[in-house]
Amino acid sequence: MISNFTSLRITFAVMAISCFACVEQNVPVKDESTNVTSSSVSVGDDAARSGESNQFNSTVGAPIEYTLGQRWIENYESPCADKSGTYTINATSLKAVLNNGSPVGVSLVYALDFQKRLHILPIGVDSKGKRIKPNVVYTQNGNISWKTAQQWISNYTGSVQSHFFGQNTFSRLWANGTSDILIAFAADDNNNPQLLLSTKSAAASNGKTAAKSGFEDASSPCPPVCPK
Asked: What are phi and psi of 199, to 5 degrees?
């Protein structure tokens, strides 16, 4: 019979291992099943979630409810309380991506720099699903070359490589004025990685005080549908 003291030691050991795994992986583990719904978007609609029904166009993406988004942010944070995460893309940089060539939207690509810090790189995508090569790639810490961006992207080995959002997403976010975009790392109730977008004018740096109207999500993840 295991003593209470031994049981307590085992419990703390499991918690420590879970936290270590969270720090090492930096993102939640992907589960292919999805069945959570909200009144803003049907998260359980596989075609809508994956983008397979519409591929790449300006309509990909939709608002989700404030309370649902907050829960997903907490899902991401819960394994390790100090591992909350947000990323900022300034409005000028994002507008440059949207004005380069003829993009129908932006692929927000996960990347790890040479110090293993997580970044989200915005890359324009045309209606054929082709990435539009920029002169520079924007990060929240400054610009990098296309070559460096490819190296950072290859460093990342998570189950989801990127999330595509159509142009309409950013039109909605900027409906009341241009502001920097705050990206909150999140995990839905099936632990699928999500990126929740809001404007910095409506959200604090921790991503927890977004406007009550909610967040932008319902992106097209890669895989299964990836830009070329």
From this structure: -95, 150
- pTM value is 0.74
Residues 6+ apart with CB under 8 A from 75: 28, 186, 187, 188, 189, 191
DSSP, res 79? T
Which tens digits make up the pLDDT trace of 94-130? 999 999 999 999 999 999 999 999 999 999 999 999 9
Residue in 165, 222, 227, 161 with CA at minimum distance from that of residue 198? 165
Q: Which residues of 125-152 are buried (b: 16+ CB within 10 A; e: fewer)?
A: bbeebebbebeebbbeeeebeeebbeeb
Q: How far apart are CA 58 and CA 141, in angstroms?
A: 28
Residue 182 in 3-state DSSP?
A: strand
